[in-house]
Specification:
alpha+beta; Alpha-Beta Plaits; four-stranded antiparallel beta sheet; two-stranded antiparallel sheet
Length: about 120
């Protein structure tokens, strides 16, 4: 099962990560990558670009968007056996980085079709 773990709280008041936290995060990323659990990870640019289609008309709007209250600022794509395992990995992540918020959503695709499809 694949899950997308998204960080939604950029905690912009927080101090920059220290060397110890960066080393611990590096070990966590290396461990999960070698185990084949971590498929991709990264941070996202603030704002981005919004694209919308309505009545055959495409609209493109550059961010940032003031109304975006819970913008995704980082992500990890993982492959695990269960939602519980995804939750445990998220707990480990937050035990390293400290305060923050995130969302966990299952990813469906050809190898993992959407339930009921």
């Amino acid at each position: 099962m694949r899950f997308l773990l998204m960080t939604t709280d950029d905690n912009s008041d927080a101090a920059p990560p220290d060397e110890a936290m960066m080393a611990e995060m590096g070990k966590f990323i290396e461990e999960t990558s070698k185990a084949g659990v971590l498929l991709a990870t990264g941070g996202l640019e603030p704002g981005g670009t919004r694209i919308a289609s309505s009545g055959g008309k495409i609209t493109v709007t550059d961010g940032p968007f003031a109304e975006a209250k819970e913008a995704v600022v980082g992500f990890a794509l993982i492959e695990v056996r269960s939602r519980e395992e995804a939750i445990e990995l998220s707990k480990r992540f937050y035990s390293i980085v400290g305060d923050g918020e995130g969302i966990i959503q299952q990813v469906f695709g050809p190898e993992d079709p959407f339930p009921g499809a």
